[in-house]
Design brief:
alpha/beta, six-stranded parallel β-sheet, 11 helices
Length: about 375
């Protein structure tokens, strides 16, 4: 198999996750994908050097443009703050590189549109980091819904809640910079919106209420000087799907005690599903018929029959982890690059998600229903 040269821009949480995932994909899916870690870039040269040594990149740099122009780099992973995505993605596309970009794709749908159209015009493969969609049990849920096992879908309830911004002492950071887009609705909401679209299809209308709970934060850890917060901490949406049903979505990064509550409940005329990322090796199914008169949900545990779980472990119930989902995501992306055929979610899908995020800002500000 042709080797694919990897360049990663950024060495933080997601940059590290990308490096781990590319390395693991090459071993776990050996013979299917062949990534080679070529270069890593970070504005902090010491951080780039540390990643170079840790993961075995061939070189490192504090100049992301040099990474993009490296002739050995075929794929560029962008893991920087949102406000840098447009410039870096357009440069990579112009250089003919395939691009993986972390979510949200851009601060607004106008930038997302530019990125999408540039990539499609150049003919490069793109993907955006909605890694939770790569869970084998989420793919199973989609198959159940599309196969009619739940009957006609009548309701959706989704949430992505964490507490990493819950303390008023947590300082102002790039996540709160309005130049990077919205707050919780973009950072967390993009994931549950992506999940809703993946499972039930397009959202055609919404009514949103965005709330800033902590209105000022220290400019730095322990500082007495405060800076105004101009983005949302909590977003609450009522949404309508093109298929005809409605639902509710919440994004919340001040949810005290929650570390990773990405979850949904879907109800149909023949049954229901509920899921939470906090127990993401389990999918709970209820069938209203053929249950022998018993009540309650049946737990489905992830196992080798739910591809590609078996590539990681031959035994059911032993469970995948977060980085395994990222490895599946990167393996699918590399296959798409190798076959020159998109697998998604690509820039166009991320643009559609960003349109919904933008619509929530309009709806909340103008206190009205917005049609998409």
């Amino acid at each position: 198999m042709k080797k694919i040269g990897i360049g990663i821009i950024g060495t933080g949480f997601m940059g590290t996750s990308h490096a781990l995932a590319y390395r693991a994909a090459g071993g776990i899916f050996s013979g299917e994908v062949a990534p080679e870690l070529i270069s890593v870039a970070d504005v902090d040269r010491a951080a780039a050097e540390k990643a170079y040594h840790r993961f075995g990149f061939r070189r490192y740099t504090d100049d992301w443009q040099a990474l993009i122009n490296d002739p050995e780099v075929d794929v560029v992973s962008i893991t920087t703050p949102n406000k840098f995505h447009l410039e870096q993605a357009l440069a990579a596309i112009k250089a003919g590189k395939h691009v993986h970009c972390e979510k949200p794709i851009a601060p607004n749908s106008e930038d997302a549109k530019l990125m999408t159209e540039a990539a499609e015009a150049k003919g490069v493969i793109t993907q955006v980091g909605f890694n939770y969609l790569k869970n084998p049990l989420i793919k199973l849920a989609k198959e159940m819904i599309e196969g009619g096992e739940l009957g006609e879908i009548v309701s959706f309830r989704g949430i992505h809640a964490e507490d990493f911004m819950g303390s008023p002492h947590t300082p102002w950071s790039w996540r709160l910079d309005p130049k990077g887009g919205a707050g919780a609705i973009a950072d967390l909401g993009s994931h549950i919106i992506a999940m809703a679209r993946y499972l039930l299809g397009p959202i055609v209308g919404l009514n949103a209420d965005l709330e800033t709970v902590i209105k000022e934060r220290p400019v730095a850890l322990g500082a007495s000087e405060l800076r105004k917060v101009e983005v949302d901490d909590i977003a609450r949406l009522t949404v309508e799907f093109a298929r005809g049903c409605k639902g509710n979505i919440e994004a919340n990064w001040v949810a005290t005690g929650r570390k990773m509550q990405l979850g949904f409940e879907i109800y149909g005329t023949l049954g229901g599903l509920h899921f939470t990322q906090e127990r993401f090796n389990e999918l709970n199914l209820y069938r209203s018929e053929g249950n022998g008169g018993h009540h309650g949900f049946q737990k489905i545990e992830a196992g080798p029959e739910h591809l590609p779980y078996g590539a990681f472990c031959p035994a059911p119930g032993h469970q995948l982890g977060f980085n395994d989902l990222k490895t599946i995501e990167m393996a699918e992306f590399l296959r798409a690059v190798g076959n020159n055929q998109a697998s998604g979610p690509d820039f166009r899908e991320a643009w559609e998600i960003q349109k919904i995020i933008d619509a929530t800002l309009v709806s909340s500000k103008e206190k009205r229903w917005v049609t998409l």
